[in-house]
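Q: Got a minute? One more chain.
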Amino acid sequence: MTIYALSSGPGVSGVAIIRVSGPESKNVINKLTKGPFPKPKMAEVKKINKINTNELIDEGIVIWFPGPNSYTGEDMAEFHVHGSIAVIKAIQNNISKIENCRLAEPGEFTKVAFQNGKINLIKAESIADLISSETEIQRQQAVKIMSGKSSDKFNSWREKLLKILSNIEAKIDFPDEDLPEDILKDIKNSSKKIKEEIQKLLNDQNVGERIREGFKIAIVGPTNAGKSSLLNYLSRREVAIVSEIAGTTRDVIETHLNIDGYPVVISDTAGIRESKNEIEKKGIKLALKRAEDADLNIVIIEPKSVDFAGFLNDLVSEKSIFVLNKSDLGFKDLNKKFKKFKPISISLKDEKNIDQLILEIKKKLKNKFINSEDILITRERHRQNLEQCVYHLKKFEEKNKLDDFDKAAEDLRLAARHLGIIVGKVDVEEILGSIFNDFCIGK
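A: Always. Here it is, folded:
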């Protein structure tokens, strides 16, 4: 089957790219254009016509990529045309009339590339991450993963485990033959070293996932302290309703921001106070849960937040920034319990010292999450498979007796399998759907 789709962004644009991949790609070019067939990988200007009437649709560039030296590994064609919705629809409608041609599913071009061995699973994921990157740090991470360093590392560990496995299986096949003492020693040292390297990698504070998905920041504090106003200020738009009525925010309001290159998911939460209202109590419970799960909390109060002092010990920690809002009202009667937390004094009304708060947010993010070491784990599925690999390596280390060699071999197979699943070296059909569905159509 031959697939086709718009590969450039949807909507009106100067140029649109329609990609075709599969055995009918050459036939698609022949039916939509006239004259000499394009030379491989050479951009040629062609008149693009309707297949039955030869009515002109548009004039654009056609590029022919014969397989296997194409992105997908199949015969492939690209039509670079004017980005009119009418032009795009007309070309796609005409391709659909050609036998064995259908519209591509989300991520299907990259999925075909993976299935044809052009890329591995990690590179496929990094392509999706690069397309969806919104900040510089996300782009940098996606490009680093695309370079293949993480794939090389996982493959290296897997190959070492397979080498150990071959020695174990040799012992199983020839039980009367004793393995040389140096080989037994190498087996134990190698498996232990791999286990320790993976454990060290797993102890990375989930930085890769946080960069990819966004650092989680929760704004928490009592009612009427200015939480929603702060969210609106950082977002530069009216995300949350601001009112003088206490308890206006009942649910968690979430927005994605780019703070000086850091991808951030910032949440405004319900005001924390003693309440008998069931709906408000649920909102407060959600606020405390969001603060617990956040990477960083902005605990914001104002001079009159006397009743909030009891909550501070639970909310102010190493992952918190303590903010005193409404400095324009003055702090003559400021609660002494607040002073010991050394709050940043701001005024959202007068836009005073907010730059100091933003600087502190960036400092906290950088100190907590950004390190000089290369990031290799960017998705939860990577982490889960590495954890399973470590689990089976531990089980392997527990087996020292001759009778345990069969079970030891199985532990190694499972450990190597989990490394293989990450890069797509084994049957991973059950996870392909969820990975490639995250792609846009045409990629």
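A: The chain has three domains: 2-104, 135-204+377-436, 211-369.
Q: Perfect, thanks.
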